[in-house]
Design brief:
Elements (H helix, E strand, L loop, with lengths): L15 H14 L1 H8 L6 H124 L10 H4 L9 H14 L9 H65 L1
Amino acid sequence: SSFARQPSSSDPMQSPVTMVFVLALALCAASGVVAEQHARSAVTPVQKVIELMEGMLAKGKSEKHDEQVQFAAYKQFCDDTTVEKKRAIAEANEKIEVLKADIEKYTATAAKLTEEIAAHDEDISVWKGDQKAATKVRELEKADYDAMHADYSESIDALERAIAVLKKQAYDRKQASFAQVTALQKLSLIPESAKRAIDAFVQEEEPTDGLEVSAPEAYGYEFQSHGVIEMLEKLLDKFIAERTGLEKTEMNSKHAFDMLMQDLTAQIDQATQDREEKAE
């Protein structure tokens, strides 16, 4: 503390009144001495006591003034500090209210973002599932297409060879010449009715070893082979048309799959970007 330590009023040896009595007693005890000095001095003992008391009074007033000045300074310091602390407390309370409002706002925002992130995660999961399912279906479709296209191509090739052989074998009807025709019976796309017709034609027109083909027989072969050729040509046209339709269907399916995958990929990428931004 900046204040000087003041004498305690409870100390009897330092009380002004006590000191006066002490001095008075001392003066009375020394009255003999004072009497001797009276002749040499004009100052009486009472005047001496009064001078001492006035000096003590002046000193007391001075110390009281100094103490009042110190107290006033301390009181001003306390008042100023109180005002400053109250202002700081008010500002802190105001800031606390603002922070509470911010906390509520950010808490609500966090909850909303959490829900939106969960929705993005669900969408991404669903879209990835759609990609896997679409890819699985596409693989099955492609496998079916490849198998069917191979069957059509094999049947078309076999029909073209058989028709060419039949058209060239008007007079040369050795058994080996019917190999391309009988091979048609092994193809899965050839109808059963056509297979029976081919079998009947081959059985009936199979030449006898060592015998020449007469003109009537050749004419009969040409007549019958014409019917078989016409049947095979119709099958050939049918298979070519069906293979062309199959190719168009495959092209459309592949295009639809590519577009679907492109759309799903774009949706997944956008949802992933939105999720990452909201998770920051």
